[in-house]
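Worked example

This section walks through a single chain of length 278. The input is the sequence exactly as stored; nothing has been trimmed or padded.
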Amino acid sequence: MERTRYLIKFYYIGSDKYFGSQRQSDFETIETQITRSLFETNYIKDIKTAGFEVASRTDKFVSARGACFSFLSEKKPILMEINSALPRDIGLWASSEVTKDFSSRFNAIYRHYKYIFPLPENKREKYNLKLMKKASKVFEGRHNFLNFSKREKEDITTVRDMLLADCSKEGDYLVFNFTSQAFLRQQIRRMVAKILDVGNGILAFDELIKMFNSEEFISYQPADPKGLILWDIYYGDKINFTIDTKSHERMMRYFSTEFTKYSLKQKLFAILQRDNIG
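Given that input, the structure is written out below as tokens.
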């Protein structure tokens, strides 16, 4: 029977129970959940022959709003049917037919990540937004990002083209946006760590510039993975995603429920910090 290749857009929330997005034999991951749901709903019988491919890999605790994967199927995907076999913190919500040789990974024109940083209540005034905006713009263009990525065992090129890097303030949060065709491992979290260092006076702007010198190795901790979101993957105007209404509603209901739950918990702990008992 003739098979068609489908490109699927999906979300997930990184947490303790998932060891990142990529399939691992001994650990539960986002990909494991998705492939299991495709098996259970009879869309695939074998991962290799189905040509299952995820566009981007993310580390543990990283979330996604517009991640993508592609696969071959004899029947057109009914997203809510597949979602019924998934936990609420993972969900498919849009799809598109593509050519059989289409690669969800290599045909991506650019990937868009957001990073959310909560400003510490007692240190909000210490962060210089104007300086952080200036520091963010330094990353735009073609650079060697060796000192802004995790050192890999394999010999890979660390030169990347950054299309956009910016920083803005939304209430009590800093929101960073980065777009590029491809990112190195931990690249965004390491860039954010150094932009924040510039913003609170730990790192001089000139010292940030010097970090692009790949001859000097610099070791430091990346920013917390919990603030990172794979926001979207853009494939150009020829790929037209169809949003599944019920699946999209499922996603938005989940986000709304979790927002309410965590807002209540945040307020609870804010009140618990008060000393005026009685």
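What to look for: The chain has a mean pLDDT of 94.
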